[in-house]
Each structure stands twice: as C-alpha cells, then as structure tokens.
Amino acid sequence: MCTTLIVPGLNGSGDGHWQHYWLQDDDRARLVDQDNWQCPVLDDWMRRFEHALAETDHAYIVAHSLGCMLVANMARRPLAKKIKGALLVAPAHLGRVEALHPCIVSFGEAPADPLPFPSVVVGSTNDPYMDVGNLGQAASGWGSDLVNLGSVGHINIASGFGRWQQGYGLLDRLVDPRDQGRATVRTTMARANETALRQHVAS
Fold first, then answer.
1. In 26, 43, 111, 191, which residue has its Cα 20 to 30 A from 70's Cα atom?
2. Which residues contact 120 (CB under 8 A, 6 or more apart)?
3. What are phi and psi of 143, to 5 degrees?
4. Taking the chain (203 residues) in consecutive chunks of 10 residues, what is each chunk's mean pLDDT?
5. What pTM was computed for the model?
6. Rounded distance, CA 155 to CA 178, Å?
C-alpha cells in the first residue's frame, strides 16, 4: 500500500492547519511525529522520518516549512527509494529560521542535492521564511516544479490556510498512474460529501 506521509515543520501542525485537515481527509495519510517539535535536531527528526518510511511499501510526502528541509536531506539516504513523490510547501530557508528563532533549530546546512523523486515546491512572494529568490534556487537545485501562489505568506494558519483543497490537486500531479487503486484525496472527499448528502436527504 502506498501511504501519504505528512511531515510538519517547527512546532508541528496543530488544529486548524491544512496538514491537520489532510490527515482527516486522506485515509492513507500518516503523521511523521517527532519527540521534540519545539527544538528540532536534524538527526533526531531524520530517525523518526526514516522509521515512518520503513513501515511503508512506498510513500508520497506532504511537507511544510522545516519539514521540506527534512525531506530534502533524505536525498542521499537509502530509504529515499521508497518516496514516489513529494509536495514541498513553503520551504524554510535555514538562515531565516535562525534569524527568527535563534538557537532553536539545529539542521546544519541547507541541502541542495537534486531529489531522486518527483517533487513540486509551493511558495509565495512574501514568505518570511523564504524570499522569492531563494525559493527559485531551492526548487531549481532540487529539480522540482515550482508553483508560486502569490502574496500568501507562509501558507499556514496565520495566512489563512485551513483545509486546503488546492494542495490535494497539486499532490495528484505526482501520483504514479501505476498506483492502481489509489484514490486521490479529492475522490475520497467527494465520496464523503456524497454520503453526507444522501444521509441529509434521507432524514
């Protein structure tokens, strides 16, 4: 079975965040949990990520912010072969993270290696964690398609992103046609809405 792994960034993605809704809407989605969301250490976060990958046959990744850097650091690791595609939303430039959260994050240098799996980077023109120039450089270095949503901040709760159905469509771009039987999130939601409508009519 092909799993969707949800990879949050600093402080996790709590109630109301689009990743929180994704876990509800995608019946194949699983959270890559961390022991310490407040003070991320790359090696510790990587161990949890690798453990989650090891438990899957294959996986699509949906990452946000610092989680995108975690995914990019997977490029040279053996378990990268299990990743079939990655949606990398609002990647965080590590220099900006350090400036905004001094001595909080220990993630080393920003990875620039091409990713060995298909990927889409989604960003904005006014993200406090990644300016447009660095966004383009990151997407180019990783070999990712780039989607710029305009002036939408860090694509999080603060910038108005709750349930984010556009994201489901962006992940659908990466789904391998050979993954027979994998329902997209949009299809799953449509079925749920149809069931709810039938129940409403019946009552």
1. 26
2. 86, 87, 88, 144, 145, 146, 147, 170, 171, 173, 174
3. 75, 30
4. 93 96 96 97 98 96 98 95 98 95 93 95 97 97 98 96 95 81 54 42 38
5. 0.89
6. 31
